Amino acid sequence: KNVLLEVKNLTKHFQLSSNKTLRAVDDVSFYIRQGETLGLVGESGCGKSTVGRTLLQLYKPTSGVIRFAGETISDRTETKGHKAYTSQMQMIFQDPYSSLNPRMTVTDIISEGLITHRPNLAKKERQEKVMELLELVGLSRKQANRYPHEFSGGQRQRIGIARALAVEPSFIVADEPIAALDVSIQAQIVNLLMELQRQKKLTYLFIAHDLSMVKHISDRIAVMYLGQLIELASSEELYARPLHPYTEALLSAIPLPDPLQEQARERIVLQGEVPNPINPPSGCRFHTRCPKAIDICGMVTPVFTEVLPQHYVKCHLYGERGRNLDDNNKMVSV
Ligand code: SF4
Ligand code: MG
């Protein structure tokens, strides 16, 4: 399949004061194919939302290139062209409570984007479109004139999804869309997103803070730590064979459904706090917490390398300096 979105060496720094720079995103590269879901996972503050917001041009990148549908968009400013592709890229927010204006009816909320992006649409057509969108996301036409507070959390997230879909985007950044919802509702929203993806041929960047729900929806998963990608592989591969010690720790934190398995399993508990991205550790940024760190880890930054086919890792245990792969790139157990 074709690549829809390509990110090369994306860096986003925020200058907090004359001598304080928040290195939110540092030299991140990946692509997303048409119709694919890329999961982007990491602890809060690792820069994953900043990646999503920079893709949607809510932030201007400090450096790096973003290409969308074959065009470089990272150097664009507010022009006509900007409007044309912003309708192609939409966002679903984490918090369905604060992301919907409490004084607007559902119809007004969903119509907003249509008024901006399709100003020639007659009011009647626009209203009909809103009705269709409500049904598409599993709400009823009768609810069109209600206000956000009259809905449950899951229903509000459905409204947020309808709003994103109103302008017929091809790419959606879903920024922790289920994190604020009850566990019982999470699967419903994930299933809705997957169904809409199939129907509308959507491409997703699905952001999550842990690995528990992303496997189901993601074709591939990228793991972030302190502003950098540290592992990227297909979901099956990542769950079956995590290579980076941080990914191993994240995976070991997911509760297993079988209580016997759960008891027998060894949980990797990371020591220490996530370091401050204003002053990240030298060498491998994970070395202050890594249970497998070796001598060079604090001194030399590992390179994000394709260690196995389509499986990228940023860790000294693999690749050139590593001890886990033999000459034929076969895994050697240590
Ligand atoms: Fe751990 Fe070293 Fe690998 Fe970093 S490079 S994850 S510190 S083993
Ligand atoms: Mg976030």
From TrEMBL:
<dbReference type="InterPro" id="IPR003439">
    <property type="entry name" value="ABC_transporter-like_ATP-bd"/>
</dbReference>
<dbReference type="GO" id="GO:0005524">
    <property type="term" value="F:ATP binding"/>
</dbReference>
<dbReference type="InterPro" id="IPR050319">
    <property type="entry name" value="ABC_transp_ATP-bind"/>
</dbReference>
<comment type="similarity">
    <text>Belongs to the ABC transporter superfamily.</text>
</comment>
<keyword id="KW-0067">ATP-binding</keyword>
<protein>
    <submittedName>
        <fullName>ABC transporter ATP-binding protein</fullName>
    </submittedName>
</protein>
<dbReference type="Pfam" id="PF08352">
    <property type="entry name" value="oligo_HPY"/>
</dbReference>
<keyword id="KW-0547">Nucleotide-binding</keyword>
<dbReference type="GO" id="GO:0015833">
    <property type="term" value="P:peptide transport"/>
</dbReference>
<dbReference type="InterPro" id="IPR027417">
    <property type="entry name" value="P-loop_NTPase"/>
</dbReference>
<dbReference type="GO" id="GO:0055085">
    <property type="term" value="P:transmembrane transport"/>
</dbReference>
<dbReference type="InterPro" id="IPR003593">
    <property type="entry name" value="AAA+_ATPase"/>
</dbReference>
<feature type="domain" description="ABC transporter">
    <location>
        <begin position="5"/>
        <end position="251"/>
    </location>
</feature>
<dbReference type="InterPro" id="IPR013563">
    <property type="entry name" value="Oligopep_ABC_C"/>
</dbReference>
<keyword id="KW-0813">Transport</keyword>
<dbReference type="InterPro" id="IPR017871">
    <property type="entry name" value="ABC_transporter-like_CS"/>
</dbReference>
<dbReference type="GO" id="GO:0016887">
    <property type="term" value="F:ATP hydrolysis activity"/>
</dbReference>
<dbReference type="Pfam" id="PF00005">
    <property type="entry name" value="ABC_tran"/>
</dbReference>
